[in-house]
Design brief:
InterPro entries: NAD(P)-bd_dom, NAD(P)-bd_dom_sf. The strands form two sheets. The chain has a seven-stranded parallel β-sheet with strand order 3-2-1-4-5-6-9, with helices on both faces. The chain has a two-stranded parallel ribbon with strand order 7-8. It is globular, with a radius of gyration of 17 Å. It has eight helices and nine strands. The longest helix has 23 residues. By secondary structure, it is of the alpha/beta class. About 5% of the residues have low confidence. It has a single domain, classed as 3-Layer(aba) Sandwich (Rossmann fold).
Length: about 230
Protein backbone atom coordinates (compact mmCIF):
# COMPACT_ATOMS: atom_id res chain seq x y z
CA UNK A 1 0.00 0.00 0.00
CA UNK A 2 1.17 3.51 -0.84
CA UNK A 3 0.30 6.30 1.59
CA UNK A 4 0.75 10.09 1.90
CA UNK A 5 1.78 11.67 5.20
CA UNK A 6 1.93 15.32 6.22
CA UNK A 7 3.14 17.01 9.37
CA UNK A 8 5.93 14.47 9.81
CA UNK A 9 8.29 17.00 11.42
CA UNK A 10 5.84 17.53 14.28
CA UNK A 11 5.35 15.61 17.54
CA UNK A 12 2.38 13.55 16.39
CA UNK A 13 3.35 13.39 12.72
CA UNK A 14 6.78 11.96 13.52
CA UNK A 15 5.16 9.13 15.48
CA UNK A 16 2.73 8.48 12.62
CA UNK A 17 5.71 8.14 10.29
CA UNK A 18 7.37 5.72 12.72
CA UNK A 19 4.25 3.56 12.87
CA UNK A 20 3.94 3.56 9.07
CA UNK A 21 7.55 2.43 8.71
CA UNK A 22 6.80 -0.56 10.96
CA UNK A 23 3.51 -1.50 9.30
CA UNK A 24 3.97 -4.49 6.96
CA UNK A 25 0.99 -3.48 4.81
CA UNK A 26 2.55 -0.13 3.88
CA UNK A 27 5.11 -0.55 1.13
CA UNK A 28 5.57 3.07 0.05
CA UNK A 29 5.37 6.33 2.03
CA UNK A 30 5.39 9.81 0.52
CA UNK A 31 5.96 12.55 3.09
CA UNK A 32 4.91 16.03 1.96
CA UNK A 33 6.89 18.55 3.97
CA UNK A 34 8.06 22.15 3.96
CA UNK A 35 11.34 21.15 5.59
CA UNK A 36 13.71 18.22 5.05
CA UNK A 37 13.25 15.29 7.41
CA UNK A 38 16.08 14.12 9.72
CA UNK A 39 18.88 12.15 8.09
CA UNK A 40 17.96 9.19 10.30
CA UNK A 41 14.89 8.49 8.15
CA UNK A 42 15.66 9.94 4.73
CA UNK A 43 17.76 6.93 3.73
CA UNK A 44 14.91 4.47 4.28
CA UNK A 45 14.12 2.82 0.91
CA UNK A 46 10.31 2.94 1.07
CA UNK A 47 10.16 6.61 2.18
CA UNK A 48 10.11 9.47 -0.30
CA UNK A 49 10.18 13.07 0.93
CA UNK A 50 8.69 15.71 -1.36
CA UNK A 51 9.34 19.30 -0.35
CA UNK A 52 6.26 21.47 -0.84
CA UNK A 53 6.47 25.26 -0.93
CA UNK A 54 2.72 25.88 -1.12
CA UNK A 55 0.13 23.49 0.31
CA UNK A 56 -2.59 25.27 -1.64
CA UNK A 57 -1.43 24.03 -5.05
CA UNK A 58 -0.63 20.55 -6.34
CA UNK A 59 1.05 20.63 -9.75
CA UNK A 60 0.48 17.77 -12.13
CA UNK A 61 4.12 16.71 -11.80
CA UNK A 62 3.63 16.09 -8.07
CA UNK A 63 0.27 14.39 -8.51
CA UNK A 64 1.82 12.05 -11.08
CA UNK A 65 4.39 11.00 -8.47
CA UNK A 66 1.55 10.34 -6.03
CA UNK A 67 -0.37 8.06 -8.41
CA UNK A 68 -1.30 4.76 -6.86
CA UNK A 69 -1.66 6.27 -3.39
CA UNK A 70 -4.61 4.81 -1.47
CA UNK A 71 -4.71 6.99 1.64
CA UNK A 72 -3.48 10.16 3.30
CA UNK A 73 -3.02 10.96 6.99
CA UNK A 74 -3.27 14.73 7.31
CA UNK A 75 -1.52 16.01 10.43
CA UNK A 76 -0.91 19.64 9.49
CA UNK A 77 -2.61 22.17 11.74
CA UNK A 78 -2.28 25.27 13.90
CA UNK A 79 -3.71 24.94 17.40
CA UNK A 80 -2.60 28.16 19.08
CA UNK A 81 -2.16 31.51 17.40
CA UNK A 82 -3.39 35.06 17.67
CA UNK A 83 -3.33 35.30 13.89
CA UNK A 84 -6.76 34.02 12.92
CA UNK A 85 -6.09 34.55 9.22
CA UNK A 86 -3.06 32.25 9.31
CA UNK A 87 -4.93 29.68 11.39
CA UNK A 88 -7.79 29.57 8.88
CA UNK A 89 -5.37 29.29 5.96
CA UNK A 90 -3.37 26.43 7.47
CA UNK A 91 -6.26 24.50 9.00
CA UNK A 92 -9.02 25.05 6.47
CA UNK A 93 -7.52 26.07 3.14
CA UNK A 94 -4.54 23.72 3.20
CA UNK A 95 -6.69 20.76 4.22
CA UNK A 96 -9.39 21.32 1.65
CA UNK A 97 -6.92 22.02 -1.17
CA UNK A 98 -5.35 18.63 -0.47
CA UNK A 99 -8.70 16.88 -0.16
CA UNK A 100 -9.90 18.25 -3.48
CA UNK A 101 -6.64 17.46 -5.28
CA UNK A 102 -6.31 13.95 -3.88
CA UNK A 103 -10.02 13.18 -4.06
CA UNK A 104 -10.18 14.19 -7.71
CA UNK A 105 -6.88 12.93 -9.07
CA UNK A 106 -5.77 10.08 -6.84
CA UNK A 107 -9.11 8.35 -6.37
CA UNK A 108 -9.21 7.85 -10.14
CA UNK A 109 -5.90 5.94 -9.91
CA UNK A 110 -6.99 3.65 -7.06
CA UNK A 111 -8.91 1.05 -9.04
CA UNK A 112 -8.65 -2.63 -8.27
CA UNK A 113 -9.31 -5.78 -10.20
CA UNK A 114 -12.30 -7.99 -9.46
CA UNK A 115 -15.76 -7.45 -8.08
CA UNK A 116 -15.00 -4.55 -5.74
CA UNK A 117 -14.32 -2.23 -8.63
CA UNK A 118 -12.91 1.13 -7.69
CA UNK A 119 -11.36 1.62 -4.26
CA UNK A 120 -12.15 4.76 -2.33
CA UNK A 121 -9.32 7.07 -1.39
CA UNK A 122 -9.09 7.36 2.42
CA UNK A 123 -8.40 10.77 3.93
CA UNK A 124 -7.65 10.62 7.66
CA UNK A 125 -7.79 14.06 9.28
CA UNK A 126 -6.25 14.80 12.67
CA UNK A 127 -8.68 17.19 14.35
CA UNK A 128 -9.07 17.89 18.08
CA UNK A 129 -11.24 16.72 20.94
CA UNK A 130 -12.86 20.11 21.47
CA UNK A 131 -13.60 20.99 17.85
CA UNK A 132 -16.97 22.71 17.39
CA UNK A 133 -18.99 22.20 14.22
CA UNK A 134 -21.77 24.62 15.19
CA UNK A 135 -20.34 27.88 13.86
CA UNK A 136 -23.04 29.97 15.56
CA UNK A 137 -22.34 28.68 19.06
CA UNK A 138 -20.75 30.96 21.68
CA UNK A 139 -17.70 29.37 23.29
CA UNK A 140 -15.87 30.63 26.35
CA UNK A 141 -12.59 28.77 25.84
CA UNK A 142 -10.46 28.73 22.68
CA UNK A 143 -13.61 29.44 20.71
CA UNK A 144 -12.04 30.61 17.46
CA UNK A 145 -9.69 27.66 17.11
CA UNK A 146 -12.37 25.14 18.03
CA UNK A 147 -14.72 26.57 15.39
CA UNK A 148 -11.95 26.54 12.79
CA UNK A 149 -11.38 22.84 13.45
CA UNK A 150 -15.13 22.31 13.32
CA UNK A 151 -15.38 24.09 10.00
CA UNK A 152 -12.73 21.80 8.54
CA UNK A 153 -14.75 18.81 9.72
CA UNK A 154 -17.92 20.28 8.19
CA UNK A 155 -16.22 20.89 4.84
CA UNK A 156 -14.59 17.47 4.74
CA UNK A 157 -17.90 15.78 5.56
CA UNK A 158 -19.68 17.80 2.87
CA UNK A 159 -16.98 16.90 0.34
CA UNK A 160 -17.34 13.21 1.15
CA UNK A 161 -21.12 13.34 0.75
CA UNK A 162 -20.72 14.94 -2.66
CA UNK A 163 -17.98 12.51 -3.72
CA UNK A 164 -19.01 9.44 -1.73
CA UNK A 165 -18.09 7.00 -4.49
CA UNK A 166 -14.50 8.29 -4.60
CA UNK A 167 -13.44 9.10 -1.03
CA UNK A 168 -13.79 8.09 2.60
CA UNK A 169 -13.11 10.75 5.24
CA UNK A 170 -12.11 9.80 8.78
CA UNK A 171 -11.85 12.43 11.52
CA UNK A 172 -9.82 11.79 14.68
CA UNK A 173 -10.55 13.87 17.77
CA UNK A 174 -7.88 13.09 20.38
CA UNK A 175 -7.76 14.78 23.76
CA UNK A 176 -4.41 15.65 25.31
CA UNK A 177 -1.72 13.78 23.36
CA UNK A 178 1.02 12.55 25.68
CA UNK A 179 4.55 11.31 25.19
CA UNK A 180 5.48 8.09 26.93
CA UNK A 181 7.20 8.80 30.22
CA UNK A 182 4.90 11.64 31.24
CA UNK A 183 2.71 11.22 34.31
CA UNK A 184 -0.55 10.00 32.83
CA UNK A 185 -2.37 10.08 36.18
CA UNK A 186 -1.48 13.72 36.79
CA UNK A 187 -2.40 14.89 33.30
CA UNK A 188 -5.60 12.85 33.03
CA UNK A 189 -7.04 14.08 36.31
CA UNK A 190 -5.84 17.63 35.76
CA UNK A 191 -6.54 18.15 32.06
CA UNK A 192 -9.24 15.70 31.03
CA UNK A 193 -9.25 13.09 28.22
CA UNK A 194 -5.83 12.03 26.91
CA UNK A 195 -4.08 9.43 24.78
CA UNK A 196 -0.49 8.27 24.34
CA UNK A 197 1.00 9.54 21.09
CA UNK A 198 2.00 6.06 19.90
CA UNK A 199 -1.51 4.71 20.56
CA UNK A 200 -3.01 7.59 18.59
CA UNK A 201 -0.62 7.02 15.70
CA UNK A 202 -1.42 3.29 15.61
CA UNK A 203 -5.14 4.05 15.30
CA UNK A 204 -4.62 6.57 12.51
CA UNK A 205 -2.40 4.20 10.55
CA UNK A 206 -4.79 1.28 11.05
CA UNK A 207 -7.70 3.35 9.79
CA UNK A 208 -5.70 4.53 6.77
CA UNK A 209 -4.82 0.93 5.90
CA UNK A 210 -8.08 -0.85 6.73
CA UNK A 211 -10.84 1.74 7.15
CA UNK A 212 -13.38 1.43 9.94
CA UNK A 213 -16.89 2.75 9.51
CA UNK A 214 -18.87 2.30 12.73
CA UNK A 215 -22.41 1.08 13.21
CA UNK A 216 -24.01 4.49 12.70
CA UNK A 217 -22.13 5.29 9.52
CA UNK A 218 -20.10 7.98 11.27
CA UNK A 219 -16.38 8.05 10.62
CA UNK A 220 -15.45 10.17 13.64
CA UNK A 221 -12.92 8.76 16.09
CA UNK A 222 -13.44 10.28 19.52
CA UNK A 223 -10.74 9.98 22.17
CA UNK A 224 -12.60 7.30 24.16
CA UNK A 225 -13.14 5.18 21.08
CA UNK A 226 -9.46 5.36 20.15
CA UNK A 227 -8.48 4.29 23.67
CA UNK A 228 -10.59 1.14 23.20
CA UNK A 229 -9.34 0.53 19.65
CA UNK A 230 -9.33 -3.22 18.90
CA UNK A 231 -8.77 -4.23 22.50
Amino acid sequence: MKIILTGTTGFIGHEILTQCLHNPHITSIVALSRRPLPATVTNIPNLTVKLVDDFLTYPESLLNELRGTEACIWAIGVNRTKDTETARKVNIEYTMAAMEAFGTYLSSSSSVEGGEGKKKFRFVYLSGGMSERDQSRSLWMAGEMRKIRGQVENELTAYEKTNHTNVEVYIARPGMVLARGMSLRTLVFGMGPSIWVDDLAKVLVDVAVNGNEDEDGEMVLENERMLRWKQ
